Amino acid sequence: MASFDYDAEVRFSSAAPGYWSGRDVSPGQWADYRWHLKNRVQRLDRIEEHLALSEEERSGILLTGTKLASAVTPHYFNLIEADNPGCPIRRQIIPRVEETFADSHEMTDPCAEDSHMPVPGLVHRYPDRVLFLVTDRCASYCRYCTRSRVVSGVGEQHLETQWEAAFDYLENTPEVRDVLLSGGDPLLLSDARLERILSRLRSIEHIQFVRIGSRMPIFLPQRITPELCEILSRHHPLFISIHCNHPRELTAEVREGLERLADAGIPLGNQSVLLRGVNDCVEIQRALVHKLLLCRVKPYYLYQCDLIKGSAHLRTPIQTGLEIMEGLRGHTTGYAIPQFVIDAPGGGGKIPLNPDYVVRSDERNTLLRNYEGKEFLYPEAQELGSLLM
Ligand SMILES: *Cc1c(COP(=O)(O)O)cnc(C)c1O
Questions:
Q1: Which residue has a Cα nearest atom 7 of ligand 1?
Q2: Which domains can be identified in the chain, with CATH numbers?
Q3: DSSP string spanning 300-330?
C-alpha cells in the first residue's frame, strides 16, 4: 500500500474491450447484456486464454466447481489486472485452493437462514421485514458468497422457493411491511418476471417498502436498461442496494447504469464486504465511498465477512473494520460513512460495531473524544429541584 494513488482510484474509466479487443465483438454486442451472459468466462481453459494463473488459482478452479460455480462476465473480467497476482478484483472472483480449506468455525449457512424460513425461500428473522430469495443465479460468482450453499446450482443443496406459499405467507402476515428481494441476483430475472413479482408484492396493502439487493450494476451494468428502469419506477417506493467492494469496480459504464437507476427515482445504497487483500485499508475505503457518492449511492453497510466455509484467506480481524470506521468518521462526509456490522454467526441478525468515542461516564458526566482524539465533557441535565434551591 506504499503507493496509493487516490486520484487514479477515483477516476471513472472504461476497461472495454480489454481482453476482447481484436475478437470480433461489435459495440452492439458489447452493449447487450445477453451477449455478456452467453460469453461469461467459466472454464479453466477460457480463463487461461487471458491470465497466467498461479497454482493456487488453477487448483481452486478445478476443485471448487462442485461447491460454487465460477463464472465472470466479460465486463467484470476486464477489470482484472493480468500482471498483478494480488489484484483486488481477481481475489473476489477467481477461485483459489484456499476455498477448499476448512476452518472449524466456518459453516455452510453462517447466518442460519435455513432455520428461519417459514416458507422455503423466505427468511423471516426480524419483526417487520423479510428476505425473499427469488433466484439462485448471479451474473458472476463472488468467492466469499454467504449463500454459496444454494447459489450457482452446483452444490448439494438447491434453492426451492415456493412462490405461492411465499405470497400467501406475506398476504397473511400483516407485520411484514418491508420485503427485500435477493438471491442470487434478482436483476437476472427477465423484465416480465420482475414486473409480475413487484406487482404481486404491491397488491399487498401492508407492504410499504420494497428493495432489491443486486450486484448487477457492478457485474453487468448493461443490464440496467431504460426498459428495466421504467418497470422499477412503477413500483415506488423501491430502493436498490448494490454491492461494490473496490473503487475500480465503479467504471464509466457502471456510473451510467447507476445514473439511470437514480434518474428513475430509485434511492441507492451500497453493501460492501470487508475482504483481506481487496479493500482492507482506509485509503481504499475512502476512495470507494467518495466514488459511490459521485454515483449517487449512499454507503449503507460494511460487512465483516461471514464465517462461510473456505473464506479464512479473505477474512480480516474485526479490529481492521473498527480502524477503517475510525479513519472515516469526522475525516470525511457523513453521508459517505457506512455502518460496520457483523451478521451474527448462528442467526442473530446484523449487529453494529463502532469505535468507542466514550472515554468514561458516570451519572453526571460523559467524557467523549472526537475524531482528532480531543476530549469533551457532556454534563447531564440537572434535577429541577436542585436548581430551584
Ligand atoms: C439483512 C437482512 C434484512 C434487512 O436488514 P436491514 O438492516 O433492514 O437492511 C432482513 N432480513 C434478513 C434475513 C437479513 O439478513
A1: 350
A2: 1-355 (3.20.20.70), 358-388 (no CATH)
A3: EEEEEPP-BTT-GGG---HHHHHHHHHHHBT
